[in-house]
Design brief:
CATH superfamily of the largest domain: Spore Coat Polysaccharide Biosynthesis Protein SpsA, Chain A
Radius of gyration: 19 Å
CATH architecture of the largest domain: Alpha-Beta Complex
Number of domains: 2
Largest sheet: 9 strands, mixed
Number of strands: 11
Order of helices and strands: EHEHEHEEHEEHHHEEEHHEHHH
Shape: globular
CATH topology of the largest domain: Spore Coat Polysaccharide Biosynthesis Protein SpsA, Chain A
Distance between the termini: 43 Å
């Protein structure tokens, strides 16, 4: 597939990367795997498939690894593909849409292992302060059909029709190299994962580009690959830290500080629930660190 390069970022992805690479390399596209210091057999699997590999000695995070991968290949069209995603079709349809000069990015259809669309994940609207506050306050868990969450996760979206959208999943996302360069690449401050793809789509639209969804391109996606590799205590810090980073970067100052308050209140609720569910006092330390982080953001802004 002339002109298309597939960038795959791995971290302890030995169990998933084989099928992903089989399908990716069958397209004829240029494929590069950027490995973030895996300590399992990921690199052996990649080298067995004879894919180009960039092996980092430390975990540089998803955004930095994507930027590395793009610099390592010469393709004009870049497809981000998670290691737990297996292409079920080619990506010519995505490239066709992506070729239009006004288009910043194109997402494809993600399905689970039963071929059901991953609704609420494949396509979302850009998060609002209310949507993220509701997430932090557990409102979206207790009342998932609330209007804010319904709008944010696009639960009424028709996944069988192409459409202009706001935020396709970064697990299966194509864009042109020139567009990536024009907006400054992925923001490596979103470390190690979460919100870097949301931020990228937001900046594309801030620069006047349009983002689309193309259902003719399909990938089977296991999901949760990255999350399972992160300890719970670090997972909470990374997720809330990047949520607040996104809020302070893109929301008004008052809304950002109210988001900090929502994180603090939500943590006070999650703490006793976590103690009961885990039968451990570890959630005190975990959510205490989250609250400390939110207080620092509230008082001093971005760190």
């Amino acid at each position: 597939m002339s002109g298309v390069g597939i960038v795959i970022v791995t971290h302890n992805s030995e169990a998933e990367i084989g099928p992903c690479l089989d399908a990716a390399m069958a397209t004829g596209a240029e494929v590069v795997v950027v490995d973030n210091a895996s300590n399992d057999g990921t690199l052996e699997q990649v080298r067995r498939h004879r894919a180009l590999v960039v092996a980092n000695r430390t975990n540089r995070g998803f955004a930095a690894a994507v930027n590395q991968g793009i610099c390592a290949i010469g393709a004009d069209y870049i497809l981000l593909l998670n290691p737990d995603a297996v292409l079920k079709t080619g990506v010519d349809a995505m490239r066709t849409v992506c070729a239009a000069p006004e288009v910043g990015a194109v997402g494809g259809k993600l399905v689970d292992l039963n071929n059901a669309v991953q609704a609420g994940f494949t396509v979302r609207n850009l998060p609002t302060p209310v949507a993220l506050a509701f997430e932090a306050l557990l409102i979206n868990r207790l009342w998932p059909t609330n209007p804010s969450n319904w709008h944010y996760r696009c639960y009424d979206f028709n996944h069988d029709a192409p459409a202009e959208v706001e935020q396709p999943a970064g697990a299966f996302l194509m864009f042109r190299r020139e567009v990536w360069a024009a907006v400054g690449g992925l923001d490596e401050a979103f470390y190690p994962i979460w919100f870097e793809d949301v931020d990228f789509c937001k900046r594309l639209q801030d620069h006047g580009y349009r983002v689309y969804y193309e259902p003719r391109a399909v990938a089977a996606h296991l999901g949760g690959h990255s999350i399972r590799k992160i300890l719970l205590e670090k997972r909470e810090i990374y997720w809330y830290g990047n949520l607040l980073k996104y809020g302070f970067k893109h929301f008004r100052q008052g809304h950002s500080r109210l988001l900090c308050l929502a994180v603090i209140v939500g943590s006070l609720v999650r703490m006793p629930l976590g103690i009961l569910l885990r039968r451990s006092f570890q959630p005190i330390a975990i959510h205490g660190r989250v609250m400390q982080l939110a207080f620092r953001y509230m008082l001093f802004g971005p760190l």
